[in-house]
Structures are given as structure tokens and as C-alpha cells.
Amino acid sequence: MKIFVCIKQVPGVSEVKIDPETNTLVREGIPSIINPMDKNGIELALELKEKYGAETIGISMGPPQAEEALREALAMGLDETYLLTDRAFAGADTLATSHTLSLAIKKLLENYGERDNYLVICGTQAIDGDTAQVGPEVAEELGIPQITYVQKFEIRDDKVIVERAFRGEEVVIIETKLPVLVSVLRDLNEPRYPTLDGIVDSYEKEVKYLNHEDIEAVKKNIGLVGSQTEVWRIFVPKRKGEHIILEGSIEERVSELCQKLKEDKLI
Predict the structure, then answer these.
(1) pTM attached to this predicted model
(2) CA within 13 Å, CB half, 50
(3) Do the strands 171-176 and 118-123 form a parallel or antiparallel pair, or are they unpaired?
(4) Burial of 50 (0-12, 13-18, 19+ CB in 10 A)
């Protein structure tokens, strides 16, 4: 079984900064990390590797500096990593990104001589864009089933069985067969830390680079040109007003809160 893990390098800050001129994230001087939920995806892949002997492959799209994230994934235990890096990929929205990732997965499956015995794992969403769109879109591009918001995963009798978070505290149990794409939540597991040996080994392995020609991508379908989303303006909202501390009994505090909301025309 081949397991593909989609990995995104994101800014390692709790609050992103926006360049007002370009409407893009400010990355200069900001440390980068593996998107947290993608680490849960890596951990799931490693657990399946240990249990079933699966081959694990990490894939990321980004500038050359994203190699750092893939090195960390190798240090955690992934077998191979591929970085999709090309100026033609720049400016991609979720649709163009998922198209590019799916082309890479198809090309690698062809090279491996594999058709159906594979699993694709994504983090449910990234902390920078927070759209939760790329995983489902990759599944659509590949033409395979998808299960999102996965909080428990197992393979039993050639079936993939997952618990999917639903409304509130509800959980849905879903069964399917490979191939399938799952997007995972942070509740799924606790990602391991790279060992010293793993870090040393990661620098003895090659992070393989792929450009648009390697995956046979058509330029009109990738990057900024292939993006269907046009961003007019992006900004961090400014906090308005002051904090109010309510005192008194519960009834008095509720009454005062309702009055304040009415004054602000929120109710």
C-alpha cells in the first residue's frame, strides 16, 4: 500500500500579517513550520507503515524553502518526499493547488505501477488559509472517495473504517475501500518527535523536486492563471471597543449583557 501525505509549510505564528500592497501573507522574518494537522496526517501514515508495512510518501507544493518541512517529515519517519516547486505554481488558489497535487499523485502512481491500493492523507485545514478545501478537491481530481474531519481511523478486513466528527458531539462511522482520501483532525493522534537518528537520516535522503513539466501540467490550469478565486482585499480586522467586566448575580449580569447588546444593535 502507498500512502501519500499532503504537507504544507505555514508561518509559525498565531496571528498572520498581511502585505496591504500585494494582499499576500508576510513571510519574511517569520519562522515556518509544518501545518499542525498535517503532522497528525504524518503520524497516521507512520502508524499504518509500522502495522502494515506501507510505503509513505510526503508531497508539498511551495518555494524551495519548503524543503525544510519535508526534511522534518523524513526525520519523523516518512520514506520519500517530493517538493512541487516551480514559478508556474505561484499564486495558486485551492483549486489550482489541488489540481497540481493530484497530477503529482497520479504521476507517482504511474511510476510505482500502482492503481488502486493507495491512501491519501491531508490535514483538515491549514492555519494560514483555513479553508479546508484542498483535501476534498484533491479527492475530486483523483476521482476517489473522500472522508473529512476524521478523528479515528483503522483498516479492518480490507475496509477503511473511520469515525468522522459531525454536528456538535455527534460522530458518524463510515466504511469504504481503498483508494480513499481522508482529512484528519488534531484529536486523531499525538504526532511523534523526530529522533536524533531520524534527523541524521533525513539529511542522507533526497527531497525530490518536481516542476510543471515533470507532472505534465498545463500552465493554464495551474498557479495564478489557473486560479478561479480573485482576492480583492485581505486584512486582519481591528479590535473595536473595550472589554467590559460584568459584576453582580447571574441574573444581573445577564440583564446587563442583554442591555449592552441591544445598545450595540446586536440583538
Answers:
(1) 0.82
(2) 8
(3) unpaired
(4) exposed
Q: Rounded to whole angstroms, how far apart are CA atoms 42 and 119?
A: 12
Closest CA to 198 of 76, 73, 67: 76
- 171: enclosing H helix or E strand: strand 171-176
CB 206 within 8 A of CB 144: no
Return d(Cα 39, Cα 184) in angstroms, integer.
Answer: 10
Taking the C-alpha atoms of residue 105 and residue 120, their distance in angstroms, rounded to an integer, is 9
* Topology (CATH level 3) of domain 2-221: Rossmann fold (3.40.50)
Q: Specify the length of the chain in residues.
A: 267
Rounded Cα distance between 170 and 230, Å, is 36
List the grid coordinates of 61.
507544493
Bin 149: left if φ > 0, else alpha if -120 < ψ < 50, else beta: left
Encode pLDDT of 111-149 as tens digits: 999 888 999 999 998 888 788 899 999 999 999 999 999
**How far is the C-alpha of 261 from the C-alpha of 177, rounded, in Å?**
51
Residue 181 gets which letter from DSSP? E
